[in-house]
Design a protein that fits this description.
5-stranded mixed β-sheet; 6 helices; 7 strands
Length: 192
């Protein structure tokens, strides 16, 4: 299966979307040259954050500009997983600007995501920068707004939600990955 040049990838803070992105980075053809020592956060209970994140007060803004986005990668080519919580606010604007790109959505219920984000470090997370969310009250409100936008976009485009699994990866990406993902409250979908 031919991968696109970009996959716009979104999920709310605490949805474990970063762990899913890290699993997908094992697919041949995924460009991981956005990974470097300055773009890492690890937590002893989960796989952590790696690579470029786009969004308000992040290293890169969530701008739908091809050249701007590509600056985050050290090497050209391949399929770039472009991660941002902020894509949730502008999902309808992505396909008109990037018609060949895929959009991947990760959904996990609001409070479960909020709780996990706090357990994983909350505002002490060193990368990426969550200062835009200001406090826990605003974080919970933005998680709800982002999840509602994600669900509405999926509904408007008649997308089917599935559990994230090796079978789903095989069906959507055409590649066999062997991994164990035990979080059955997390759903994924993909607009190609």
């Amino acid at each position: 299966m031919q991968l696109p040049n970009k996959i716009f990838f979104t999920g709310v803070p605490g949805s474990r979307w970063s762990g899913i992105a890290r699993i997908l980075e094992n697919i041949p053809g995924i460009n991981t040259s956005d990974n470097n020592d300055n773009r890492v956060y690890t937590h002893n209970k989960y796989s952590g954050h790696t690579g470029a994140y786009f969004g308000e007060r992040m290293e890169y803004n969530a701008w739908l500009d091809n050249d701007y986005i590509d600056q985050a990668w050290a090497e050209p080519g391949g399929c770039k997983i472009v991660k941002s919580h902020d894509w949730a606010y502008i999902l309808e604007n992505i396909k008109p600007r990037f018609p060949d790109a895929w959009i991947m959505l990760v959904y996990r219920p609001d409070f479960t995501s909020y709780s996990w984000w706090h357990e994983a470090g909350a505002f002490n997370i060193k990368y990426p920068n969550y200062s835009w969310y200001e406090n826990s009250t605003k974080m919970m409100a933005e998680i709800a707004i982002q999840n509602n936008s994600i669900l509405k976009f999926a509904f408007d485009h008649d997308l089917t939600w599935s559990s994230f699994s090796p079978r789903w990866v095989k069906e959507q990406f055409g590649y066999d990955l062997d991994f164990d993902f035990k979080h059955h409250d997390i759903l994924v979908t993909l607009l190609k």
